[in-house]
Amino acid sequence: MMFVASGGIAVADGSGDPTAVKQNESGEWSDKDGNPTYKVSDGSVDWYTYSGYRRYHSECHVCHGPDGMGSTYAPALKDSLKTMSYADFLGVVASGRKNISTAQENVMPAFGDNPNVACYMDDLYVYLRARTNDAWGRARPPKHEDKTQAYTAAEDACMGNKK
Predict the structure, then answer these.
(1) CA spacing 20 to 30 A to 143: which of 41, 54, 80, 104?
(2) pTM metric for this prediction
(3) Which residues in the chain come in under a pLDDT of 70?
(4) DSSP assignment of 101-156
């Protein structure tokens, strides 16, 4: 497990230091290594964290439990991202995973062909990264940055919406 000091707080993140250093035109923040990350300030979150919260609760919480806390059926993603890189996360979500032991069999279905997940993988990752590092708690973010026009255009293109 990797522990990184950020602002005096020890964090665990498989992708390294989650500190946001750069924001692109669609509003997505990235860390020093170029991985998507969150930006939380004064009780407000960036658009990707907010969108990730919404997407997680529409697509993932049934198996992985509320707020990434896990269930008897699937692991806590809040804990999984402590050791999982961004690339590994994308691979598992897109292609699925099967873990078989003598006690149980866990199967994560592939979501690479589901636009309700595939078009929002960065959003999901950012939200879960914020949860992993306790940058955001178990509540719906009450305040968030606005969705940018660039984000909307990318979302429409991914979802096949024609203008």
Answers:
(1) 80
(2) 0.87
(3) 1-12, 101-104, 163
(4) -SS-EEEEPP-TT-HHHHTTHHHHHHHHHHHHTTSS-SS--SEEPPPPHHHHHHHH
